[in-house]
Amino acid sequence: MKARVLWLQSGGCGGCSMSLLCADTPDLYATLDDAGIELLWHPSLSLAGGEELLALLGRCLRGEQAVDVLCVEGALLRGPHGSGRFHELAGSGRPMLDWVRDLAGVARHVVAVGSCAAWGGISAGGPNPTDAVGLQYEGAEPGGALGRDFRARGGLPVVNVAGCPTHPDWVIETLALLARDALDGAALDALARPRFYADQLVHHGCTRNEFYEFKASAEKPSDLGCLMEHMGCKGTQAHGDCNIRAWNGAGSCTRGGYACISCTEPGFEDPGHPFHMTPKIAGIPIGLPTDMPKAWFVALASLSKSATPARVRHNAVADHAVLPPAIKPTVRRGR
Predict the structure, then answer these.
(1) pTM (2 d.p.)
(2) 225 with 251: CB under 8 angstroms?
(3) CA 166, CA 119: separation in Å to the nearest integer?
(4) Domains: count for the chain
(5) Which residue of 91, 105, 151, 168 is surrounded by the most CB atoms within 10 Å?
(6) Cβ contact 78:131 at 8 Å
């Protein structure tokens, strides 16, 4: 029996669906089928719409059609004044907020696809005029549209596959694990993100790590150096295996020359400073690496910079490798 997945889109850009469609699998439907997943409906992948969709949702609510996983992409819009009327499901006359709450009550599992659905994300940025929230979080605070105590019929809280957008593998692997009843509470981190990706940091596997080790920093977007000190990179704080599990087999933000903006974390959309700048106090970056005391970082940075090889120092502020690594014998020959 395949796991039946119902996918709804709420307040967002659809980027997580686009990411899934751009996965480096040759056949998305075959991949889902091999993973034991049956897609009941998806706004971009399904032909059914209008009355057909409303009929399907009715069957789901009446228990005539089982829903193993309810996926929601995009934030839930509670405005105006808690009515949810800023976003009605077309043709239904009902707010999407109400549909999601009702369907979450009959689903075996509920998955928030992307940081908008998980925490509110970009949709909740700034003054948040639509009162956008995540399914079970409002920023970093539990609650959201379903409430902090919500548990799906399978016993789990909302599973937060956070990212902006999500890596397609994170979505497919989460659904595959749920299809096999192989994802339990111990497999989720403190923010209910699957630990198979959230127990890593974006820093892990970054191609700029040699520059980080010597604190040889980029000074402009085209430079090869570490992006943390001046360019706003939060890869040492952001949870995700983006540089280990390269996107489409090759890419990541930092490999493309862009700083990690920590898009898997609550509140990333309002950092309080431009994304491309690193805020500092007395020349020390405010956002220090996870688990590292400030005094240790200052001491390490000072020592590292004093030991920076000329090759690393020059290459850090260039858009290509100016100096190659030195060639030295690797085998000692006896006399």
Answers:
(1) 0.93
(2) no
(3) 13
(4) 2
(5) 168
(6) yes
